[in-house]
Amino acid sequence: MLKLDLTADVTGVSLFLNQLRAQRAAKAIAEALNKTALSARDAVRKEMPRRFTIRRPWVLHGIGIRYARSGSLRAAVFSRDAFMRDQEYGGIRRGSASQIIPRGRMAIIKQSRVLPKSMQPKALMEKKNVSYEAGKLFERRDKNRIELLYQFRKQANIPQRFGMEETVRSEALRMMRREFERALLKALME
């Protein structure tokens, strides 16, 4: 009769399997975070035209994400443009060029498009028929007519109207659980 006794030290294999499981879980979490961040970014971009007049697409493209990795389980949705911070939190902007308010025909033009450089205050100041007085820029149209082009204020009140934080939070709460379950199931099937 032949009798075999086999013993094996499986602690190394067990440790390897646990590490493999942890790596797969971290990868699944990172994937879920990334999909949630992408969805939140798209929700913010979709919401912006309702809150702002978008004259140039680069404002929408300024909303970006920082991807999560399995070693760093943190994703972020952010705005590349510093001026959008003022739109998020509101407040008062102070300084010599805080607020330039177009008036008259300049206001009409600005409603539908971006004013070209030739119609900006700096370029207009170089013309002979344009003058500055008491925080206002005037243009002499003819002998009897003077038109107000711009009004300048040293202080501008900026309303809190972006709502990016609120949009990202609601989208993350809506998407994260579903995306995490989907990614974890996929990782366990591999």
What's this, in brief?
The protein is of the alpha+beta class and 190 residues long. It has helices at 11-51, 58-61, 83-89, 105-112, 121-124, 164-189, and strands at 63-66, 76-79, 91-102, 130-133, 136-140, 146-158.
Helix/strand order: HHEEHEHHEEEH
How many beta-strand runs?
6
> What would you call the structural class?
alpha+beta
Distance between the termini: 43 Å
Mean pLDDT: 81
Poorly predicted runs are 1-8
Shape designation: rod-shaped
Give the tags.
190 residues, rod-shaped, disordered N terminus, alpha+beta, four-stranded antiparallel β-sheet
Describe this structure in words.
A hairpin with a 5-residue loop joins strand 5 (136-140) and strand 6 (146-158). Residues 1-8 have low confidence and may be disordered. The two termini are 43 Å apart. The protein has two domains: 12-88 and 160-189, no CATH class; 94-156, no CATH class. Helix 1 (11-51) packs antiparallel against helix 6 (164-189). The chain has 190 residues and is of the alpha+beta class. The protein has helices spanning 11-51, 58-61, 83-89, 105-112, 121-124, 164-189; strands at residues 63-66, 76-79, 91-102, 130-133, 136-140, 146-158. The strands form two sheets. A four-stranded antiparallel beta sheet has the order 3-6-5-4. It has a two-stranded antiparallel sheet with strand order 1-2. The chain contains six helices and six strands; from the N terminus they run ααββαβααβββα. It is rod-shaped.
Q: How are the secondary structure elements laid out?
A:
Layout: H1 11-51, H2 58-61, E1 63-66, E2 76-79, H3 83-89, E3 91-102, H4 105-112, H5 121-124, E4 130-133, E5 136-140, E6 146-158, H6 164-189
Antiparallel strand pairs: 1-2, 3-6, 4-5, 5-6
Helix pairs in contact: 1-6
